[in-house]
Design brief:
The protein is of the alpha/beta class. It has helices at 3-8, 22-38, 50-56, 76-90, 102-110, 143-150, 169-181, 207-225, 240-250, 263-272, 282-289, 303-306, 335-338, 342-357, 367-371, 411-420, 433-436, 441-456, 484-493, 507-516, 530-533, 550-574; strands spanning 13-17, 43-48, 64-67, 94-97, 116-119, 130-132, 189-194, 229-233, 254-256, 275-279, 294-298, 315-317, 383-386, 424-430, 464-468, 500-504, 519-523, 545-547. It is globular.
């Protein structure tokens, strides 16, 4: 079905059927936001199992979350009939089925929803009015992209964005209070350990190795950051004894929360972690959605499809012939897990923390940087040029109303950090939608007013926004990678290009940076996915840095500026 057919009679009430597993639901979250951007005027209601409903209960893109409790009120044929009746009363006109099972399509049909849209899986084609062909399985596709690509026939454009989750300030305070009662202060650093897996024992790394990694990280963080460090052990019901066994081996401050958290509690606890060491589990994806550094030990499952999105370098795995086997129990010697040493996981954790901090604070070589940790004026005199779509905000296509515009969750704080360090912030964005007739300049002004309003909440103000409204075929000098917008900033702001950075999500942003002599950071939140970003290092389009989010880009930029400052001082000392 083409996007023309969908938008000719745009749906007013959409039912979104969520996946059933926590990890899958988190990986589906970008597509949920994408659906909202496609139909900004529609009422979006999600139908989900209880745990998934809890995960999405505060999602800003949803009007309502309905619980599908197939263990109680919706069990059996009568329960399904009752659920279908309830859905029928909502009068949905479109069902988008991210859940792949036959049952999802059957329930939508039973509820009388006239348009039923989803992948043609599990023998359910007869119950779908708009079946979508399943992607070619010859090339492994990440689940985030699998869900995102389901929306392409509806008009979705661009690459998948990073998953993002929200907890409220009250939920943060509640968890802080609970941890304080367990002896962990709000100022303490937390190492998260998630040693279990509800999928089966084959996915579990060895408990004593989890404990050893945690002990080493506690020592290193305490020495490097001169802070109190505690370990929080997470897990599902039934994994309490596993958590207690690991806690007994730690010898330091720890708390076992296995089987003792709601989904919302779990989200808030994971958000507090400095790093999460985990098997391939739902909490792994929750951590990635909050931007928490992850170290994920993979054995029988396919890292290519379920790695924490945006943190692919977090994976630790042993390349054995039998993996990925996708088995719940190992029929042989569990070599995919037993061959993964404590050293490998520990080193991966150190690298993840360093990457997230941007200042290599755990490195023995970081003394000079730590002495320069006061970053108040570090970027004084610097200009940071920022791309817009795919860098600051998800890029669903041509954004022509403020309702379609939202920032990536980490953006306001990342920009606030750059601003506090003294940087001038200037957005440079191609907006050919004006020339193509998809939006007017007034529409664009309204979107940029919302951008400024969203940043105001974090105390951030942009110094300028420049845009190119021309068609790519017009041959203008302002469309990136041409430098017209930069030259305008030079005239109006006296920018020093020797003290400039450019952060963007596309190769043309990096090419522009090279043309003007600025240092560049490529973020993989837009059109260049992380899988392709590394390959740019071998080409003429290589950026100076690669980051999985604007927060990580800010970390890299501050670290880079610190290093440049140190090098300059060293040259001044050597050649006074």
């Amino acid at each position: 079905m083409g996007s023309e057919l969908v938008h000719r009679d745009s749906p007013r009430k959409i039912l979104v059927r969520a996946p059933n597993w926590i990890g899958d639901a988190v990986m589906c979250e970008p597509a949920v936001r994408g659906l909202r951007s496609l139909f900004p005027e529609a009422e979006l209601t999600m139908l989900a199992k209880p745990a998934i409903a809890e995960l999405f209960i505060a999602h800003p893109g949803l009007h309502c979350v309905l619980v599908y409790d197939d263990k109680a009120v919706h069990a059996g044929i009568s329960g399904k009939w009752s659920l279908a009746g309830m859905l029928r009363r909502h009068r949905f006109d479109l069902a988008v089925l991210f859940q792949n099972a036959f049952e999802a399509a059957f329930l939508a049909w039973l509820a009388g929803i006239p348009r039923r849209y989803g992948y043609a899986t599990d023998g359910r084609v007869l119950f779908l009015t708009e079946p979508v062909a399943v992607p070619n399985g010859l090339v492994p596709m990440h689940q985030v992209e699998y869900y995102w690509n389901l929306l392409r026939p509806l008009g979705m454009a661009g690459g998948a964005t990073l998953p993002a989750l929200l907890v409220s300030a009250d939920e943060d305070r509640m968890v802080d209070g609970r941890l304080t009662a367990a002896g962990i202060d709000p100022s303490d650093l937390i190492i998260g350990i998630n040693p279990g897996s509800t999928y089966g024992s084959a996915k579990r790394w060895l408990p004593d190795r989890f404990a050893e990694v945690a002990k080493r990280l506690v020592r290193r963080l305490e020495q490097a950051e001169r802070a109190h460090v505690a370990v929080v052990i997470l897990g599902a019901k039934g994994e309490e004894s596993l958590g207690k066994d690991i806690a007994a081996q730690l010898g330091g401050r720890s708390v076992v929360l296995s089987g003792a958290t709601t989904i919302r509690d779990l989200m808030a606890v994971v958000k507090r972690c400095r790093v999460l060491i985990t098997n391939d589990t739902g909490p792994m994806h929750i951590a990635a959605a909050f931007g928490v550094p992850v170290v994920a030990v993979f054995g029988p499952t396919d890292w290519r499809t379920t790695a924490p999105y945006g943190q692919e370098r977090s994976i630790v795995r042993e390349a054995v012939d039998c993996a990925p086997c996708l088995l719940r129990e190992c029929p042989i010697d569990h070599r995919c897990m037993t061959r993964i040493s404590v050293d490998r996981v520990y080193e991966a954790a150190v690298q993840q923390i360093e990457r997230a901090s941007g200042l290599s604070r755990l490195s023995s070589l970081s003394g000079a940087l730590r002495s320069n940790s006061n970053q108040t004026n570090l970027l004084s005199g610097y200009t940071v040029f920022l791309d817009r779509d795919g860098t600051l905000n998800p890029d669903p296509g041509y954004i022509n109303t403020p309702d379609q515009f939202e920032l990536f969750p980490e953006v306001p704080e990342a920009l606030a950090r750059l601003k506090r360090a003294g940087a001038r912030l200037i957005v440079v964005t191609n907006q050919s939608g004006v020339a193509r007739g998809f939006l007017t300049r007034d529409d664009l002004d309204a979107v940029h007013m919302k951008l400024q309003r969203l940043l105001d909440g974090a105390g951030v103000s942009l110094d300028a926004i420049y845009f190119c409204p021309h068609h790519p075929d017009d041959g203008c000098d302002c469309r990136k990678p041409n430098r017209g917008m930069i030259d305008q900033a030079l005239r109006e702001w006296g920018v020093n290009l020797d003290r400039s950075y450019l952060i963007g999500d596309s190769v043309r942003d990096i090419e522009l940076a090279k043309r003007i002599g600025a240092r560049s950071v490529l973020v993989t939140t837009g059109v260049v996915p992380s899988q392709e970003a590394e390959s740019l290092k071998a080409s003429g389009s290589a950026p100076d840095g690669i980051a999985s989010s604007l927060a990580e880009a800010a970390d890299w930029l501050l670290s880079d500026a610190s290093k440049l400052s140190i090098q300059l001082r060293e040259r001044q000392v050597a050649h006074p």
